[in-house]
Target: Probable branched-chain-amino-acid aminotransferase
Amino acid sequence: MSRIVFLNGSFLPIEEAKVPFMDRGFLFGDGIYEGIAVLGGHLVDNEAHLERLERSLREVRIPNPYTREEWTQLEEELARRNGLTEGFIYFQVTRGVAERDFMFPENTTPTVAMFTQAKSIVNSPAAETGIAVITVPDLRWKRRDIKSINLLAQVLAKQAAKEAGAQEAWMVEDGFVTEGGSSSGFIVTKEGRIVARPLSNAILPGITRQSLLALSKEAGIELEERPFTVEEACDAAEAFLTSASNFVLPIVSIDGRPIGNGKPGPVTKKLRAIYIRMATAQRMAAE
Ligand code: PMP
Model:
């Protein structure tokens, strides 16, 4: 079966999906994206992702081409056409195609592109072993709350992680961890409390973060919403990350220093199980 993508109103084999040379996403990184997990053929936390998309588009003044219902239909149809039962749906909206000039072009239609990636999220070897992270300076702009397709700082951060034998980079500003290259970062104190950096323009409001913090509250796990330093993270009982493409993943070392006993910790394992239960329940409710 050929891979089908969605581009500007059509479902096409990927080989036929072409974006014009003068697309502002290509020239300026002038666009917004989203990434949503699919589990059992159903979208996880779709409403919250679409709400974040609406907000990001509004902040950069790109008109939203679809209603929430239309977006959902497109996502579901693309998953269906690709036989996607578990994995990821990526989509982006750019300001469109126009002669290169910085100011917004007039009467330009946004470019919409969407594709799927199959991936085992629940049965993940990384969840069993935990992952290593390194720390890097946070080189990004000041509106990280907007899910912009400008990802050069994250590309460099994650490549540095790979070259150091790690799987994620934690970005650091003024001594405090902001977030991972493509994930939200957390630690667990020796008293068993979760520490999460509060939302601001310094980080992306992670949808998995939002769901997980609500679930952890229900489970009676205490939360301290405050920034934490690399030193505190290295001394923490546990560390973990969240993202739509990984749910919850244990972090077992930072810059080569083991966290806790260097194995995935009990609070992280519990949170991962709680999150998977919630995502599975969403799927059953949709069926
Ligand atoms: N922070 C950054 C910088 C990210 O790129 C991502 C994933 N796109 C996240 C956090 C996690 O967000 P979510 O849980 O919505 O996938």
Observations:
- The pocket of 4'-deoxy-4'-aminopyridoxal-5'-phosphate is lined by residues 35, 179, 182-184, 204, 206-209, 242-244 (CB under 6 Å).
- The mean pLDDT is 97.
- The longest helix spans residues 266-286.
- The chain has two domains: 4-118, 125-284.
